[in-house]
Design brief:
The chain has 86 residues and is mainly α. It is built from six helices and no strands. Helix 2 packs across helix 3 and helix 2 crosses helix 4.
Length: 86
């Protein structure tokens, strides 16, 4: 799974966990709902660090917590192994 999909899935999971819609999240983080929709539906495969930071701010969580999941850990291991020729 690519990073964009991991970010999209994480946003959706957090919205479900916090019982908020993408529309509400867009209001909370100050980015347009179309930007969030592009991330969720794959139109934006690599959201900027600033966009992710703003989403985290809207969700009231540090970026470290956003990325601290088994899925991101696994993706990091795969990327590291690929770079090292493993």
């Amino acid at each position: 799974m690519d990073t964009g999909m991991l970010i999209a899935n994480r946003i959706l999971a957090l919205c479900t966990e916090k019982n908020i819609t993408l529309n509400k999240l867009s209001f909370l983080c100050g980015i347009t709902q179309s930007t969030l929709n592009n991330i969720i539906h794959g139109g934006s495969k690599n959201p900027t660090v600033d966009t992710v930071r703003r989403i985290c701010t809207g969700l009231n969580m540090p970026m470290k917590s956003f990325f601290d999941t088994p899925e991101f850990d696994a993706a990091t291991r795969i990327d590291t192994n690929t770079e090292n020729g493993l």
